[in-house]
Design goal:
The protein is 38% helix and 19% strand. A hairpin with a 7-residue loop joins strand 6 and strand 7. The chain contains eight helices and twelve strands. The longest helix is centred in the first third of the chain and has 34 residues. The chain is elongated. Strands 3-2-1-5-8 form a five-stranded mixed sheet. The chain has 313 residues and is α+β, with helices and mostly antiparallel strands. It binds dinuclear copper ion. Dinuclear copper ion binds next to loops.
Length: 313
């Protein structure tokens, strides 16, 4: 991840890293001057080396040296601030016209990310897909508290603020997986609000969109069919959506293609049927504080439900 961070695979990431490196070098130079001056004065005016000499006393009326230093520091802060603001403005201006519809909508939830592709009706969670080499306009908001979307390899961070929509862009020059995380403390499971962005070739992106846009696979096999009935009869359907069924809620993550995601519970575990079962048995044991209630399912029910959910490819 560090390697990705430093080399940068997106234009925004490159600009940010260039700016950061410049600031870093400047800070090192300033620190070096200060430390060298300290060392010189310690040596030059040490009491042991110059027992008889009266230390240098500055004439108060000579001119306010402190004011000069103060002005220098203030100018430095203003110049560095302007350079940063200019970069932010440039990135903002590249976000397209205000009326241009976003390619992706992100909604921060405690503690997962809802990711929507409004132009194709796709809704997914925690794992986003981007086509390589295309600047995607993103609109981000929150369903509860302030979250912060940050995928370092793809550039800037953006807060998800309740009652407000922020926009930014994401673009990558290279295919691959880009990891990120929520970067604003948002409660008990803040640390487990991971992000995975898959950057793929444009053709593959189209295929992904088509697949994600389809309704859920009907349950195959008796166990999965029983699972599908359980899903509708328990209150699963009042929080989750599975497109192509009667479940249309958006309180919890959309599960239409759950089994095709590489991870579960916002990046906590790699995808597996066993992990789904463990989760259904006791969600609080895996993710304390999560809003998924414990339904106390029987072993047969766990078998059937996990069989159904595992078929949602
Ligand atoms: Cu969401 Cu921290």
């Amino acid at each position: 991840m560090l390697e990705r961070l430093i080399h940068g695979n997106s234009p925004d990431n490159q600009s940010i890293m260039t700016l950061m490196t410049g600031f870093g070098v400047f800070a090192v130079v300033v620190a070096a001057v200060i430390f060298l001056a300290c060392a010189y004065f310690i040596y030059r005016y040490s009491a042991s080396g110059h027992p008889s000499e009266v230390p240098f006393q500055r004439d108060e009326a000579e001119g306010a040296l402190e004011v000069k230093f103060g002005i220098f520091a203030l100018c430095t802060v203003i110049v560095l601030g302007l350079i940063s603001v200019k970069l932010i403005w440039r990135m903002d201006s590249e976000g397209g016209e205000a009326e241009q519809k976003p390619d992706i909508e992100i909604v921060g939830h405690q503690w997962w990310w809802e990711i929507r592709y409004p132009q194709s009706g796709v809704v997914t969670a925690n794992v986003a897909c981007l086509p390589k080499g295309r600047k995607m306009k993103v609109a981000i908001r929150s369903a509860d508290v302030v979250h912060d979307w940050w995928v370092p390899g793809l550039g800037r961070k953006m807060d998800a603020v309740p009652g407000r929509t922020n926009t930014f862009t994401m673009e990558a020059n290279e295919t691959g997986q880009y990891e990120g995380a929520c970067n604003e403390f948002c409660g008990a499971q803040h640390a487990w609000m991971r992000i995975l962005v898959k950057v793929v070739e444009p053709e593959e992106y189209q295929k992904w969109l088509e697949h994600e846009g389809q309704d859920a696979e009907p349950p195959g096999g008796e166990s999965a069919q029983r699972g599908a009935q359980l899903f509708q009869s328990y209150s699963c359907a009042s929080c989750h959506q599975i497109r192509g069924t009667d479940a249309h809620a958006h309180i919890g993550p959309d599960l239409t293609h759950l089994a095709s995601r590489p991870t579960l519970f916002a990046g906590m575990q790699p995808y597996s049927r066993q992990a789904i079962k463990d989760w259904l048995r006791d969600p609080q044991k895996i993710k304390p504080g999560a809003y998924m209630p414990n339904f106390v399912f029987s072993d047969t029910e766990l078998e059937d439900l996990s069989s159904y959910l595992d078929g949602l490819k």
